[in-house]
Design brief:
Length: 227
């Protein structure tokens, strides 16, 4: 319900609050995807589709891309963006829960997720679902907010999250609660090292994380074992 309320201003606020860096972060995730020729990708919590679009643009040879989100208003914005960019015929959108998707086992060559895993009620269950629908050798690429390790940068970033983000978010979206939730969910979520441990727990191998922009976000990735 909350994401449905903020869907009309979601993209604008993403770009403003991240100083435009969110698009670069998503392009970086798309660039980590290995040769997409003939591959199939599922983008969990696809929202308004920025990561989905980055994947489609970076890998025009993908055989199929599915964007999944639990919020139909967000998917409506995504659908219109795909139409305007001429990419609508290359992507399928599905309204479903990321922890209980309608896909068969061993279906996708990669699963991506941008800024969605901390919003799921059960991150462990969502990772298990990613693992289930990936083909052996398939990759999970997860972009999520994190807190910088450097104490000075972390202090400045927390001030911005706690005071700047809710104020800006409320002034543009009219929904202060949603942008208060944003900073609270970031602070409460697992650190990249803890999240990588959770990925290993559900069966991923070659798990690693990389900070972006001083660690205000991180990209965690892992692979489903070949056997």
């Amino acid at each position: 319900e909350m994401f449905g309320r903020i869907a009309p201003t979601y993209d604008l606020l993403n770009h403003i609050l991240s100083f435009g860096l969110d698009l670069a972060w998503r392009r970086r995730v798309a660039g980590l995807l290995k040769d997409g020729r003939g591959g199939r990708v599922a983008d969990f919590a696809t929202g308004t589709g920025d990561l989905l679009i980055a994947l489609l643009r970076r890998h025009p040879d993908l055989a199929g891309v599915v964007g999944l989100d639990i919020s139909e208003p967000m998917l409506a914005v995504c659908r219109e963006k795909l139409r305007k960019t001429g990419l609508a015929d290359r992507a399928e959108l599905v309204c479903a829960d990321a922890s209980a998707t309608p896909f068969a086992d061993d279906t996708f060559d990669a699963v991506t997720m941008g800024f969605g895993i901390r919003n799921t009620p059960d991150a462990h269950a969502t990772l298990r679902e990613m693992h289930r629908i990936l083909k052996p050798g398939g990759a999970a690429l997860i972009l999520e907010f994190s807190l910088p390790k450097n104490r000075v940068i972390r202090w400045c970033h927390l001030k911005y999250l706690r005071h700047g983000v809710p104020l800006i978010g409320a002034s543009i979206s009219g929904d202060r609660q949603a942008y208060r939730y944003l900073n609270e969910s970031i602070e409460a979520f697992l650190s990249p090292s803890e999240f990588c441990a959770l990925m290993r727990e559900v069966g991923f191998v070659q798990v690693q994380s990389a900070p972006v922009t001083w660690g205000v976000a991180s990209i965690c990735q892992g692979q489903k074992p070949l056997s």
